Amino acid sequence: MRFIALWLLLCSTGNGLLAQTGCTDSLALNYQPEAKINDGSCMYAHQKISLLRKGKLPSDVKETSGLIFYRGELWTINDSGDGPLMYQTDTATGAIIRKVFIKNASNIDWEAVTSDEKYVYIGDFGNNITGNRDDLTIYRVDFSLLKPSGDDTLNADIIRFEYSDWERSSSSKKIKVNSTRYDCEAFVAYADSLHLFTKDWKTYHTRHYVLPAKPGYHKAEFVEEFNVNALVTDAAISPEGVLAFTAYSKNFRKALIWLFSDYRDNLFFSGNKRRLEAGKTIRITGRKKAIGQIEAICFTHSMEGFTTSEGIDQKAAGINIKTVPLWHEFNFKGLISVPVYGEMKISFQEDSVCVTWYPIKAEDVQHVWIQKSFNGKVFTDIASIRNVHQSATRSFLKEENAAYRLKIIRKSGGVVFIYPKY
Asked: Other C-beta atoms within 10 Å of 287: how many?
């Protein structure tokens, strides 16, 4: 008995067998340097950020509701009222470059778009009218079939789903618009699955559901819930695995960003959570420009990317409110800590290039792939590192215009990318 008591005492101390839990983000107000395991308790100072206005979007995408940066190209979609179209826009001017027609799709209420290394996924799951849609659909499009330039037509694989805890309302009373828990405007492709985040008009929380990223009929399984105290309008994952939401406040006046990092497995709400105020959705008085009704977000590089806001044309409190669709640029670096799983370095010899992996947080890593690209857009696996706990170098024949990165497969199945230090 004395031995057991002593063993328990040792395990409960910082010098014992069990690592101490607490806030591990040095940017947080309650940072605990002695903590080794993040318990999700980090708290942050109130933070306002400024998004850099890039300009107005063309009227063709005035209902912009989703955004992706896929293989170096910026794509957006409109919600209900448009056809089954995707629009590539210029990253410098916002001008429309080309359109892709999804031949076997319809746009009932497209609300979000996401992607993995092969496919683009379009979420036709807007459900704010009654919460009773029984035709919730995600279109999976193989963009590797897309022509290099010019308008194109593609077919989609069909994913149908329903929420695992959803029951159709049997009430004979007229259902009030914007009163459901089963509206959705945000999802990401991550760890071979699709992760949906609801726009909950009743509680102003968001509920996280997961379903397979493959054709068929699926139940979207409930995973976790978080009080964003807002209405979530889109989601995106950074190359480092940081989840970001766009949202607006309950009174529709504030545009918000939520950031989630250093989470356990694929439980995005188990780690660090930070709320950022990005400005006013509309502004009746004052000189500062409003950001608009923020509806979409994507990452282009490490913690950098774009947001878009749809145009508004409505009357509220006797005032006519009219705004144009806008797009903004953001940089979230230094606002939340990001786990560092390892480093990548590249060195050049006369006829060869050496790629080296240096592990840092390898206990969370399952596998490492070295990838190569000749255009900086499409990367392919060329070599693997199986012993992720040790430094490893792979040598390749030097090729003109070749670029390299590491694809990190986490034990949870999630994928993050590491770019080189020279």
From this structure: 5
Do residues 406 and 344 make contact, with C-beta atoms less than 8 angstroms apart? yes
Residues 6+ away with beta carbon under 8 Å from 190: 237, 266, 414, 415
Q: Which residues pair with 361 in a beta bridge?
A: none
Residue indicated by tokens 């190569």: 372
Give the integer Cα–Cα distance in Å for 280 and 278.
Answer: 7
Q: Is 45 exposed, middle or buried (0-12, 13-18, 19+ CB in 10 A)?
A: exposed
* C-alpha–C-alpha distance, residues 308 and 68, integer Å: 11
Q: Which residue has the tokens 């778009």?
A: 113
Query: Cβ–Cβ contacts within 10 Å for residue 140, how many?
Result: 19
Rounded Cα distance, 293 and 234, in Å? 12
Q: Report CA 19 to chain centroid distance, whole Å.
A: 30
Length of the chain equals: 422
Residues 6+ apart with CB under 8 A from 214: 140, 157, 159
pLDDT, one tens digit per residue, over 21-50 is 999 999 999 999 999 999 999 999 999 999
What's the sign of the alpha-carbon dihedral 166, 171, 172, 173? negative
Res 6 pLDDT > 90: no
Residue 275 has a CB neighbour count (10 Å cut-off) of 16
C-alpha to C-alpha distances, 341 to 194, 220, 270, 331, 382, nearest whole angstrom: 23, 30, 18, 22, 20
What tens digit of pLDDT does each residue of 48-80 get?
999 999 999 999 999 999 999 999 999 999 998
